[in-house]
Amino acid sequence: MSVIEKTANQIIVNAAVKKKAEKSLFSRFLQQLSSVRFGVVLLILLGLLCFFGMIIMQQNVEGFEHYYAELTPAQKLVYGSLGLFDIYHSWYFNVLLLILSFNIILSSIDRFPKTRTYISKPKIDTSLRFLKGQDENAAFETESESADALAARIAENAKRAGWRKTVISEKNGKTFVFSQSGVWNRFAYLAVHVGLLTIFLGGFMTGQLGNTGQMALQPGQASNEIYEFVSTLDQLNQVTKLVPFEVICTDIQQKLIKNDGSLSASNTIDWLTKIQIRDETGVTDAVVQMNRPFDYRGYRFFQASFVATGRARNINLRLTAADGAVQDVTIPRNGTVSLADGTLVRFVDFRGNFSLGKEDPNEDTSNYPNPGAILQVTPPNGTAQTAYAFNEKMANIPAATKSVAGYTYRLTGFEKVADQHILSVQRDPGANVVYVGFVLLSITLIAVFFFSHQRVWAMIENVSGNKFKVTLGGNTNRNKPAFSEKFKRFIRSFGEQNQEAKV
Predict the structure, then answer these.
(1) Is the pLDDT score of 244 beyond 90?
(2) 283 pLDDT above the threshold of 60
(3) 152 and 89 in one domain?
(4) Which of the ends of the chain has fewer CB neighbours closer than 10 A, N or C?
(5) Domain count, the chain
(6) Residue 397 has pLDDT above 50, yes or no
(7) Inter-residue contact 86 to 230 (CB < 8 Å)
(8) DSSP string, 371-414
(9) Is the same domain home to 228 and 260?
(10) Confidence of residue 496 (pLDDT cuts 50, 70, 90)
(11) Which residue range is the domain that position 65 belongs to?
(12) Band of the pLDDT at 10, cuts 50, 70, 90?
């Protein structure tokens, strides 16, 4: 290598180094922030955090307090310190979403001018080397009145094949036909990015403006409070929040598979909670079922769980008078029935495991080991007295055989129901935004993979007289096997036309 060549190469290297050094720190930062590689890394990190959110129960999920109680002190401290019990509301999750959103926006801005130029100024005239270098290429000779007539025929065949956008041009004595379809496919990345950003926006709105909690209800109870468990380092606290309306429980019901079975979830078809919602607009009646949530003013009510204390929605009683006369009555919860002689019998309470002492509120009586009803009996012109009704199993205990207001009472049946239903109350302002994002993303992905941008070129050269040589080439950005078959059919169409012309 000569001294002159070495000097020239050194000048080129120095110029490249100088140009790189001239880039400001901010420009290099933006370039890195908008890179696809950086975006992929962010997506992997986001997916990892979502994975942690799946394997570690979040504090707004029903049953979190039981899950938390089973953890070791070390797990409570580590998970709480890192915010893993509420990972979707943690600062680092929101920061990651924000950076990923910037990456998507900047990469779209960076890519858009190139795509626009690629579409608005397509390569119309080409070289023979370019055509032979395409995924699909072919060449044949044919006769025609003129190059223009042959170009028009090629353009018409291209339109029949589906490449409807055609341009005919001339350069250096050669005629070119350029055809394409699915140009919009090149901009599909923008719709994908918009879909992702819409989903991120909806998630951010839910995280910052949403409200989630639980509301325990039993018939006759009213509440405008919801509660949730919040972990702070290794401590678990219950936080109460207010909702802008009052919820009144009018009835709860549990439909069982086997009426003689327990109240367990495996023996339950459905839970129903009947409520009234009162606010400044009036009163709204609603029913919340297991698979039928109820929406009101941006809040959604779900069936979450129930308190496993056995109660009765209604009871069937057999009353026996002193003279042996028998009456069968049915009394709803907190209801009253009037007997023929004017005696009033009111259903006061029910216990799944009856005892004369104070009931243990933490005892699971969903199997109803010793069911019993507490009644209030008021004879005509008399004072109210307490009576008890039991089934056959406890029919001979003194409380069951004791006459009250001239009657003895036998529990012949009852409709089982839990003491309380616990509703999950969620305010999710970003839900509809997320749904729109997912719909847009799904439609775009389907369109991207089912359609493609296809381009075909034809170069026409005059060989002699009315004889012309046609060289074709084409490519596509997706679904290359289907494009290959389509291109071959396109080539065969010229052979069929030549055959018809000869005939």
Answers:
(1) yes
(2) yes
(3) no
(4) C
(5) 5
(6) yes
(7) yes
(8) -EEEEEEE-TTS--EEEEEE-GGGTTSHHHH--BTTEEEEEEEE
(9) yes
(10) low
(11) 34-110
(12) low
